[in-house]
Amino acid sequence: MRPLFYAHSGLRYLVLLMGVIAIAYFAFGLATKRPVDKSVRIIGSSFAGLLDTQVLLGIVLLGAGWPFYPALWGHIVMMLAAAVLAHVMLVVNRKRPNPGYLLPLIGVGGAFVLIIGGILAIARSPLGTTSLGG
């Protein structure tokens, strides 16, 4: 079960890195009024896919009997909200006649904030330290 925990814990760095890349790309596209191309969909889908994998690993970890403690409720709720927000905003943008950068930026940026909050809800910083000194 520890390898599953380490996979879940380590994947957060990829999720955060992809979030930063997506936010930067969408903000740059919005600021420069660049025409939207398929990279918006690819970058958004990459972020959402990594986030989905992270959520799935977390669910499997809990199902496998990882110790549950009350702070996990905040973590679970914020992570699920992040995944839903990212997916909804990316899908709505894709279905629009003229997709843009704003909705993906709101979706990924909002999800990123929720992810940071979810990490902090279990007393872990995004850089791997805990309030317990680990």
Radius of gyration (CA) equals: 16 Å
How do the helices and strands follow one another from N- to C-terminus? Answer: HHHH
Give the integer mean of the pLDDT values.
Answer: 91
SS content category: mainly alpha
Question: How would you describe the overall organization of this protein?
Answer:
The chain is mostly helical. Helix content is 76%, strand content 0%. The protein has one domain (2-121). The protein has helices at residues 2-32, 38-63, 71-95, 102-121. The protein starts with a helix and ends in a 13-residue tail after the last helix.
Give a summary of the structure in a few sentences.
The protein is mainly α and 134 residues long. It is built from 4 helices and no strands. The chain is elongated and about 50 Å long.
Produce the secondary structure layout.
Layout: H1 2-32, H2 38-63, H3 71-95, H4 102-121
Helix pairs in contact: 1-2, 1-4, 2-3, 3-4
Keyword list:
transmembrane helix; disordered C terminus; 4 helices; membrane; transmembrane; single chain; 134 residues
